[in-house]
Amino acid sequence: MAPVTMTETVPSFSPGSAVSSALRGYLALCLALQVPRLDSAQFTVAGPDHPIVVSLGGEAVLPCHLSPRVSAETMEVRWFRFKFSAIVHRYKDGRDQRDEQMPGYQGRTELLKDNITRGSVSLRIHNVQLSDHGKYTCLFQSGDSYEEAKLELQVGVSGSDPHISVEDHQDGGIRITCQSAGWHPEPEAQWRDAHGQLLPSASEKIFKNNNGLFQSQISLVVTKDSNQNLSCSVRNLILNEKKISTISKAEQFFPRVSPWLVALTVILALLAVLIPLASYCVWQQRRTKDKLQAELRWRCAQLYAVDVTLDPDTANPQLVLSEDRKRVSDGGTRQDLPDNPERFDPWLCVLGAERLTGGRCYWEVEVGDKTRWELGVCRESVRRKGDVTLSPGNGYWAVCLCYREYSARTDPTTPLPVSARPGRVGIFLDYEAGEVSFYNVTDRSHLFTFTDTFSGPLRPYFCPGHRYWGTNAAPLTICPVPAQPQGISVPDRDPAAQTGPSQR
Predict the structure, then answer these.
(1) Helix (H, G, I), strand (E, B), or coil: what is residue 22?
(2) pTM higher than 0.85 for the full model?
């Protein structure tokens, strides 16, 4: 049997192979360290790639969503402006957090959560203001992970129609100026000829007024040779809205003057002054007479003053009544009160305790500087639950201040011209005559009178306005009516008409 020879192989050492092994180990370590980071990046945040454009006073919806579409119910969602702490709206722990909200947005923001389980949480801003214009950041945070997206809100306002006026002589021609105010953001102003060709302007000014809106002023020099129609246009670039004013041929600025034309012009100018002056004198005389008659009717109405108090059983749970039941205001939070059939919900109103079944009754309510309120009378049988539409057809005879406009709740509503802001309002009910009259106690003027036919008990009606509707939290106060001076006599329709309200 042949001998077997065993050979031992010794591995050889190479510096290049050692470096390669070390490099492969380093790469493996980097990949291992990168794995947790990849796991932590669980979502991204996306918003629109174009600005959101809205008109002043409207509603803006700023969309924002997660990708992939995972639920954001347990996440923190923060909308902010210039810095992280400038909070527009914050959602955390499954509810809205309003404590850190900037004062300018309080009561005007709403987080739309209908699709929150699909990662979509848009922000709605009510009653958009000029200060809302600019950049916004939408941030989602889950644990230690967070992502954000930026978007822009642009607030647009279309201003007045351009006004063209003659300014002065310049460079052998006449300088005409086109002005328009009330725009946001800065508008684009242009002069064009009859063929739509752009004309170079002599000067152009755009400046911001104290109200935050822009005014445009653009000038052009026309000569006798400028025998063409001209137009001035001002355009809002973000709303893509344009307003145009035109003038006829430029030769109208260089007329041939006739003596007869001068005389006729003087006569017409005198008539233009005298006729309006005479009309004004007649109008002023009639206005003074009407004002005196209105004040006399108000003084007569005050003779039927009654003591009116508030009925807590009808008050919306969010309203706060004083102990003497003479004042009512929006408390801002819902109270734990019995949900009886007489209570209004969700409409923020309360009725007077008195049942008005006949005769004449008068009371006064202090409204102060409140920016929203509603006052009047209603049928005792009006619907108390759900939305309330104020109109005589639904049993309400009321006037209101809403969005800086005074109006009577007719159908449709009737705007009320007010010369002096009412600090106190008087309400006079003549049951048999079918009249509910309202007076501005501040200047003793008549506001409005409803004429109808009444049947069944009526109740005084009060609505102090919702503090989140842009009004302040000041109360409505039922005030004592001062005693009337001697010498005012009132003709009685019927002795029975002297009766006041019956108590519940």
Answers:
(1) helix
(2) no
